[in-house]
Amino acid sequence: MSDEIQQFLKYLRAERGASPHTLRAYRRDLERLADDLAEQGTGLVEARLGQIRSHLARLARRAPAPSTTRRRLAAYRTFYRWALREGLLEASPAERLASPKSTHRVPRFLDLPEVLDMVEQPIQEGWLQLRNRALLELAYGAGLRVSELAALDRADIDLRERLVDVKSGKGRKQRLVPFGPPAAEVLSSWMEASCSGQKALFLNYRGERLSVRSMHRIVRESGVKNGISDVHPHALRHTCATHMLAGGADLRAIQEQLGHASLSTTQRYAHVSAQQLVDVYRASHPRASSIETASDVTKAVLPEQEEREDEVDS
Protein backbone atom coordinates (compact mmCIF):
# COMPACT_ATOMS: atom_id res chain seq x y z
CA MET A 1 0.00 0.00 0.00
CA SER A 2 1.37 3.40 -0.99
CA ASP A 3 2.22 6.13 1.51
CA GLU A 4 -0.51 8.36 0.03
CA ILE A 5 -3.21 5.73 0.64
CA GLN A 6 -1.93 5.12 4.18
CA GLN A 7 -2.03 8.83 5.02
CA PHE A 8 -5.44 9.20 3.42
CA LEU A 9 -6.89 6.33 5.47
CA LYS A 10 -5.43 7.84 8.65
CA TYR A 11 -7.18 11.09 7.76
CA LEU A 12 -10.51 9.31 7.22
CA ARG A 13 -10.18 7.46 10.51
CA ALA A 14 -8.98 10.36 12.67
CA GLU A 15 -10.77 13.39 11.22
CA ARG A 16 -13.89 11.99 9.59
CA GLY A 17 -14.55 9.05 11.89
CA ALA A 18 -14.93 6.63 8.99
CA SER A 19 -16.19 3.16 9.88
CA PRO A 20 -13.98 0.07 9.43
CA HIS A 21 -16.30 -0.96 6.58
CA THR A 22 -15.69 2.33 4.76
CA LEU A 23 -11.94 2.15 5.35
CA ARG A 24 -11.72 -1.39 3.96
CA ALA A 25 -13.80 -0.51 0.90
CA TYR A 26 -11.88 2.70 0.12
CA ARG A 27 -8.54 0.97 0.62
CA ARG A 28 -9.53 -1.82 -1.76
CA ASP A 29 -10.80 0.60 -4.40
CA LEU A 30 -7.74 2.83 -4.27
CA GLU A 31 -5.25 -0.05 -4.27
CA ARG A 32 -6.95 -1.51 -7.34
CA LEU A 33 -6.74 1.85 -9.10
CA ALA A 34 -3.10 2.27 -8.03
CA ASP A 35 -2.18 -1.17 -9.39
CA ASP A 36 -3.82 -0.36 -12.72
CA LEU A 37 -2.03 2.98 -12.93
CA ALA A 38 1.31 1.41 -11.99
CA GLU A 39 1.09 -0.86 -15.03
CA GLN A 40 0.93 2.35 -17.10
CA GLY A 41 3.91 3.83 -15.28
CA THR A 42 1.75 6.37 -13.38
CA GLY A 43 1.17 6.95 -9.68
CA LEU A 44 -2.12 7.81 -7.99
CA VAL A 45 -1.25 11.47 -7.60
CA GLU A 46 -0.16 11.78 -11.24
CA ALA A 47 -3.30 10.12 -12.67
CA ARG A 48 -5.29 11.85 -15.41
CA LEU A 49 -9.03 11.89 -15.88
CA GLY A 50 -8.83 9.65 -18.97
CA GLN A 51 -6.84 7.01 -17.09
CA ILE A 52 -9.40 6.83 -14.28
CA ARG A 53 -12.23 6.59 -16.81
CA SER A 54 -10.41 3.74 -18.58
CA HIS A 55 -9.94 1.96 -15.25
CA LEU A 56 -13.65 2.25 -14.48
CA ALA A 57 -14.53 1.03 -17.97
CA ARG A 58 -12.44 -2.11 -17.43
CA LEU A 59 -14.17 -2.75 -14.10
CA ALA A 60 -17.56 -2.18 -15.74
CA ARG A 61 -17.05 -5.27 -17.91
CA ARG A 62 -17.82 -7.27 -14.77
CA ALA A 63 -21.21 -5.51 -14.53
CA PRO A 64 -20.92 -4.12 -10.99
CA ALA A 65 -24.01 -2.81 -9.22
CA PRO A 66 -24.52 0.96 -9.59
CA SER A 67 -23.99 1.30 -5.84
CA THR A 68 -20.52 -0.29 -6.21
CA THR A 69 -19.58 2.18 -8.94
CA ARG A 70 -20.84 5.10 -6.85
CA ARG A 71 -18.73 3.89 -3.93
CA ARG A 72 -15.62 3.71 -6.13
CA LEU A 73 -16.28 7.22 -7.39
CA ALA A 74 -16.75 8.43 -3.81
CA ALA A 75 -13.39 6.87 -2.86
CA TYR A 76 -11.61 8.52 -5.80
CA ARG A 77 -13.19 11.95 -5.28
CA THR A 78 -12.56 11.94 -1.54
CA PHE A 79 -8.95 10.84 -2.02
CA TYR A 80 -8.17 13.49 -4.63
CA ARG A 81 -9.87 16.24 -2.61
CA TRP A 82 -7.66 15.25 0.33
CA ALA A 83 -4.57 15.20 -1.93
CA LEU A 84 -5.50 18.65 -3.21
CA ARG A 85 -5.74 20.01 0.34
CA GLU A 86 -2.39 18.42 1.17
CA GLY A 87 -0.77 20.13 -1.78
CA LEU A 88 0.04 16.87 -3.55
CA LEU A 89 -1.60 18.02 -6.80
CA GLU A 90 -3.01 21.17 -8.36
CA ALA A 91 -6.37 19.86 -9.59
CA SER A 92 -8.46 16.76 -8.91
CA PRO A 93 -8.77 14.42 -11.91
CA ALA A 94 -11.93 12.85 -10.42
CA GLU A 95 -14.30 15.81 -10.17
CA ARG A 96 -15.63 15.41 -13.73
CA LEU A 97 -16.43 11.71 -13.35
CA ALA A 98 -20.16 11.05 -13.85
CA SER A 99 -22.05 8.91 -11.36
CA PRO A 100 -24.52 6.21 -12.47
CA LYS A 101 -28.14 7.08 -11.88
CA SER A 102 -29.51 5.94 -8.53
CA THR A 103 -32.36 3.44 -8.65
CA HIS A 104 -33.77 4.63 -5.26
CA ARG A 105 -34.30 1.04 -4.13
CA VAL A 106 -37.05 0.72 -1.51
CA PRO A 107 -35.65 -0.69 1.75
CA ARG A 108 -36.75 -4.17 2.84
CA PHE A 109 -38.96 -4.22 5.92
CA LEU A 110 -41.07 -6.75 7.83
CA ASP A 111 -44.71 -6.47 8.80
CA LEU A 112 -45.62 -6.46 12.49
CA PRO A 113 -46.55 -10.17 12.90
CA GLU A 114 -43.33 -11.21 11.13
CA VAL A 115 -41.03 -9.08 13.24
CA LEU A 116 -42.78 -10.03 16.50
CA ASP A 117 -42.48 -13.74 15.72
CA MET A 118 -38.82 -13.35 14.92
CA VAL A 119 -37.96 -11.18 17.94
CA GLU A 120 -39.87 -13.34 20.43
CA GLN A 121 -38.76 -16.71 19.03
CA PRO A 122 -35.09 -16.47 18.04
CA ILE A 123 -32.74 -19.37 17.49
CA GLN A 124 -30.90 -21.32 20.23
CA GLU A 125 -31.94 -22.17 23.77
CA GLY A 126 -31.29 -21.10 27.34
CA TRP A 127 -29.12 -18.06 27.99
CA LEU A 128 -28.10 -17.85 24.33
CA GLN A 129 -31.74 -17.51 23.29
CA LEU A 130 -32.19 -14.84 25.98
CA ARG A 131 -29.19 -12.97 24.54
CA ASN A 132 -30.62 -13.27 21.05
CA ARG A 133 -34.00 -11.93 22.19
CA ALA A 134 -32.29 -8.94 23.80
CA LEU A 135 -30.26 -8.35 20.65
CA LEU A 136 -33.28 -8.51 18.34
CA GLU A 137 -35.47 -6.40 20.62
CA LEU A 138 -32.84 -3.65 20.65
CA ALA A 139 -32.18 -3.91 16.91
CA TYR A 140 -35.88 -3.52 16.12
CA GLY A 141 -36.96 -1.40 19.09
CA ALA A 142 -34.18 1.18 18.78
CA GLY A 143 -33.29 0.86 15.08
CA LEU A 144 -29.56 0.57 15.72
CA ARG A 145 -26.95 -0.32 13.11
CA VAL A 146 -25.36 -3.72 13.60
CA SER A 147 -21.97 -2.07 14.17
CA GLU A 148 -23.54 0.04 16.92
CA LEU A 149 -25.06 -3.04 18.55
CA ALA A 150 -21.72 -4.84 18.51
CA ALA A 151 -19.96 -1.90 20.16
CA LEU A 152 -22.42 -1.48 23.04
CA ASP A 153 -21.23 -1.85 26.63
CA ARG A 154 -23.38 -2.66 29.63
CA ALA A 155 -22.83 0.87 30.92
CA ASP A 156 -24.48 2.25 27.76
CA ILE A 157 -27.89 0.87 28.77
CA ASP A 158 -30.12 2.94 31.07
CA LEU A 159 -32.96 0.59 32.01
CA ARG A 160 -34.76 3.10 34.23
CA GLU A 161 -35.02 5.77 31.52
CA ARG A 162 -35.12 3.15 28.72
CA LEU A 163 -32.30 4.84 26.79
CA VAL A 164 -29.23 3.51 25.02
CA ASP A 165 -26.15 5.72 24.72
CA VAL A 166 -24.78 5.11 21.22
CA LYS A 167 -21.17 6.28 21.19
CA SER A 168 -20.01 4.55 18.02
CA GLY A 169 -22.45 5.92 15.44
CA LYS A 170 -21.39 6.73 11.90
CA GLY A 171 -18.89 9.57 11.89
CA ARG A 172 -18.34 8.95 15.63
CA LYS A 173 -21.53 10.83 16.41
CA GLN A 174 -23.01 10.12 19.82
CA ARG A 175 -26.76 10.02 20.41
CA LEU A 176 -29.27 8.85 23.02
CA VAL A 177 -31.86 6.48 21.59
CA PRO A 178 -35.06 5.37 23.38
CA PHE A 179 -36.36 1.81 23.44
CA GLY A 180 -39.63 0.33 24.67
CA PRO A 181 -40.74 -1.76 27.68
CA PRO A 182 -40.37 -5.15 25.91
CA ALA A 183 -36.72 -4.39 25.12
CA ALA A 184 -36.15 -3.08 28.66
CA GLU A 185 -37.61 -6.26 30.18
CA VAL A 186 -35.53 -8.69 28.17
CA LEU A 187 -32.38 -6.55 28.46
CA SER A 188 -32.81 -6.55 32.26
CA SER A 189 -33.10 -10.34 32.27
CA TRP A 190 -30.08 -10.72 29.97
CA MET A 191 -27.87 -8.36 31.98
CA GLU A 192 -28.79 -10.19 35.17
CA ALA A 193 -28.09 -13.61 33.64
CA SER A 194 -24.86 -12.71 31.82
CA CYS A 195 -21.46 -12.18 33.35
CA SER A 196 -21.50 -8.78 35.07
CA GLY A 197 -17.70 -8.69 35.10
CA GLN A 198 -17.61 -8.20 31.33
CA LYS A 199 -17.70 -4.74 29.76
CA ALA A 200 -19.46 -5.74 26.54
CA LEU A 201 -23.26 -5.96 26.49
CA PHE A 202 -23.62 -8.88 24.07
CA LEU A 203 -21.32 -11.86 24.64
CA ASN A 204 -20.60 -15.06 22.73
CA TYR A 205 -20.45 -18.51 24.35
CA ARG A 206 -16.80 -17.85 25.34
CA GLY A 207 -17.73 -14.71 27.27
CA GLU A 208 -16.21 -12.40 24.63
CA ARG A 209 -17.83 -9.53 22.75
CA LEU A 210 -20.25 -10.82 20.11
CA SER A 211 -19.04 -10.00 16.60
CA VAL A 212 -20.92 -8.30 13.78
CA ARG A 213 -20.64 -11.52 11.74
CA SER A 214 -22.31 -13.51 14.53
CA MET A 215 -25.10 -10.93 14.79
CA HIS A 216 -25.78 -11.26 11.07
CA ARG A 217 -26.02 -15.04 11.51
CA ILE A 218 -28.38 -14.77 14.50
CA VAL A 219 -30.72 -12.44 12.61
CA ARG A 220 -30.65 -14.50 9.41
CA GLU A 221 -31.23 -17.84 11.13
CA SER A 222 -33.90 -16.44 13.45
CA GLY A 223 -35.71 -15.26 10.35
CA VAL A 224 -35.46 -18.69 8.72
CA LYS A 225 -36.76 -20.33 11.91
CA ASN A 226 -39.88 -18.16 11.63
CA GLY A 227 -40.38 -18.62 7.91
CA ILE A 228 -38.74 -15.34 6.82
CA SER A 229 -36.01 -15.68 4.22
CA ASP A 230 -33.08 -13.37 3.53
CA VAL A 231 -33.51 -11.11 6.56
CA HIS A 232 -30.54 -9.12 7.87
CA PRO A 233 -29.91 -6.63 10.71
CA HIS A 234 -30.46 -3.63 8.45
CA ALA A 235 -33.96 -4.94 7.65
CA LEU A 236 -34.81 -4.61 11.35
CA ARG A 237 -33.54 -1.02 11.28
CA HIS A 238 -35.70 -0.32 8.22
CA THR A 239 -38.65 -1.98 9.95
CA CYS A 240 -38.23 0.23 13.03
CA ALA A 241 -38.31 3.35 10.88
CA THR A 242 -41.26 2.17 8.79
CA HIS A 243 -43.35 1.28 11.84
CA MET A 244 -42.51 4.61 13.50
CA LEU A 245 -43.68 6.45 10.38
CA ALA A 246 -46.86 4.38 10.19
CA GLY A 247 -47.48 5.19 13.86
CA GLY A 248 -47.35 8.92 13.23
CA ALA A 249 -43.71 9.88 13.87
CA ASP A 250 -42.39 12.67 11.66
CA LEU A 251 -39.26 12.29 9.56
CA ARG A 252 -37.16 14.52 11.81
CA ALA A 253 -37.89 12.26 14.80
CA ILE A 254 -36.98 9.18 12.77
CA GLN A 255 -33.81 10.91 11.57
CA GLU A 256 -32.74 11.51 15.19
CA GLN A 257 -33.64 7.94 16.18
CA LEU A 258 -31.58 6.37 13.40
CA GLY A 259 -28.71 8.84 13.51
CA HIS A 260 -28.93 9.84 9.84
CA ALA A 261 -26.74 12.79 8.92
CA SER A 262 -29.13 13.82 6.15
CA LEU A 263 -32.92 13.91 6.10
CA SER A 264 -32.75 12.72 2.48
CA THR A 265 -31.59 9.32 3.78
CA THR A 266 -34.58 9.11 6.12
CA GLN A 267 -36.97 10.05 3.33
CA ARG A 268 -36.56 6.60 1.76
CA TYR A 269 -38.88 5.25 4.45
CA ALA A 270 -41.62 7.64 3.38
CA HIS A 271 -41.78 5.82 0.04
CA VAL A 272 -42.46 2.60 1.92
CA SER A 273 -45.44 4.09 3.78
CA ALA A 274 -46.60 6.59 1.18
CA GLN A 275 -50.25 5.66 1.76
CA GLN A 276 -49.97 7.09 5.28
CA LEU A 277 -48.76 10.32 3.68
CA VAL A 278 -51.74 10.27 1.34
CA ASP A 279 -54.14 10.07 4.26
CA VAL A 280 -52.40 12.83 6.23
CA TYR A 281 -52.07 15.06 3.17
CA ARG A 282 -55.71 14.70 2.13
CA ALA A 283 -56.88 15.41 5.65
CA SER A 284 -54.74 18.50 6.22
CA HIS A 285 -53.61 20.27 3.04
CA PRO A 286 -55.94 22.86 1.44
CA ARG A 287 -54.98 21.77 -2.08
CA ALA A 288 -55.19 18.03 -1.45
CA SER A 289 -58.18 17.47 -3.73
CA SER A 290 -55.94 17.13 -6.80
CA ILE A 291 -53.79 14.43 -5.22
CA GLU A 292 -54.99 11.00 -6.26
CA THR A 293 -52.18 8.47 -5.77
CA ALA A 294 -49.45 7.61 -3.32
CA SER A 295 -46.80 8.45 -5.90
CA ASP A 296 -48.43 11.84 -6.48
CA VAL A 297 -48.40 12.75 -2.82
CA THR A 298 -44.82 11.58 -2.40
CA LYS A 299 -43.77 13.96 -5.17
CA ALA A 300 -45.88 16.74 -3.65
CA VAL A 301 -44.57 16.63 -0.09
CA LEU A 302 -41.01 15.32 -0.44
CA PRO A 303 -38.07 17.09 -2.07
CA GLU A 304 -35.90 15.12 -4.44
CA GLN A 305 -33.51 12.83 -2.61
CA GLU A 306 -29.95 14.09 -2.61
CA GLU A 307 -27.16 11.70 -3.45
CA ARG A 308 -24.63 11.27 -0.64
CA GLU A 309 -21.45 10.24 -2.38
CA ASP A 310 -19.07 10.20 0.51
CA GLU A 311 -20.79 7.52 2.62
CA VAL A 312 -20.93 3.79 2.00
CA ASP A 313 -24.01 2.91 3.92
CA SER A 314 -26.92 4.42 5.77
Overview of this protein structure:
This protein has 314 residues and is mainly alpha-helical. Helix content is 55%, strand content 3%. The chain has 15 helices and 3 strands. The protein has a 3-stranded antiparallel β-sheet. The radius of gyration is 22 Å and the shape is globular.
The portion of residues forming beta strands comes to under 5%
CATH topology of the domain at 112-241: hpI Integrase, Chain A
Provide the residue-averaged pLDDT. Answer: 82
In DSSP terms (H or I, runs of 4 or more residues), the helix count works out at: 15
Arrangement of strands in the largest sheet: 1-2-3
**What integer value in Å does the Rg equal?**
22 Å
Shape: globular
Helix content: 55-70%
Main sheet?
3 strands, antiparallel
The end-to-end span amounts to 28 Å
Would you spell out the secondary-structure blueprint of this structure?
Blueprint: H1 3-15, H2 20-39, H3 49-60, H4 66-85, H5 112-120, H6 126-142, H7 146-151, E1 157-158, E2 163-166, E3 175-178, H8 181-193, H9 212-225, H10 233-246, H11 251-258, H12 263-266, H13 268-272, H14 274-284, H15 294-301
Antiparallel strand pairs: 1-2, 2-3
